[in-house]
């Protein structure tokens, strides 16, 4: 930390010198133009991976919008489905009533025929 007697410009200059000296000790491979083949290849691969992630994200968003559209269309048919379900339930009750009535008629006719034969 700078003492109150030091000027702000001098403090900034000394911090700049420290960062420059840290860069000098890191070696020549970390400088912009003198990158090794490995570092250049790594940066290219990282760029490709980043671009691939962007494509994946875009495709996931597109899929999400498509699924939302499918759900919206499905929700539009909910009232039609409810109407057909109600119709099916009414028809099932009528069939049960008709079958019970027919069975009673068939039993009644069968007994009447037996009594007539005797």
From TrEMBL:
Biased composition (Polar residues): 1-22
Biased composition (Low complexity): 103-118
Region ranges (Disordered): 1-36, 90-118
Keyword RNA-binding tagged: no
Gene Ontology annotations for the cellular component aspect, listed alphabetically: DASH complex; mitotic spindle; mitotic spindle pole body; spindle microtubule
Gene Ontology biological-process annotations: cell division
Protein name: DASH complex subunit DAD1
Source organism per UniProt: Purpureocillium lavendulum
Origin organism lineage: Eukaryota, Fungi, Dikarya, Ascomycota, Pezizomycotina
Gene that encodes the chain: DAD1
